[in-house]
Amino acid sequence: MHTKLKKSDKIAVFCGARPGVHPNHLVFAEEFGTILARRGLDLVYGAGGVGVMGALADAVLAAGGDVTGVIPRSLHERERADNAPGAIFVVRSMHERKALMYRLAAGFAILPGGLGTLDELMEVATWNQLSIMRKPIVVVNHRGFFDPILRMLDHLVDEGFLGANERHLIQVAHDAEEAIDRLRVGHSVPAPATA
What we know:
8 helices; alpha/beta; seven-stranded parallel beta sheet
């Protein structure tokens, strides 16, 4: 089954609330957000007003796109996310945050981030593997940031814990244009694994 994105579809972008140590993470987030909006796609994100998240959301808005943030109440209060860019939905829990983001999004792009970013990547990949949803996932491996994780996925295939067709649920792009092209084309989702 193939998914084909339309103009005004929302892309959930998983990324860090921190800037990272290299300034290129913020520069790339701005570039990605600008291209996303110019290509007619809107953003769903974790409602962080700083770091990679903030740079991304600001760029989408500056380029004329719509931004929807989703944040749990506890984080909203702790991080004072009132200044986060875009329309903000405050939900009760992290589970509700992820469920709403997954429902709103037509596809997923992954930019640099930490544990939360990796958690979201693995969860949407698992949901696709189990046919809970069928939405494209693209890791944007700008400057090789995700090389260690991609090697680990290949290792899972080599060790027999992940099928080669399931490995392709997580597509890889090296720049924003390629990532959005991959999201627009969509991908095939393999049948659920059997025990």
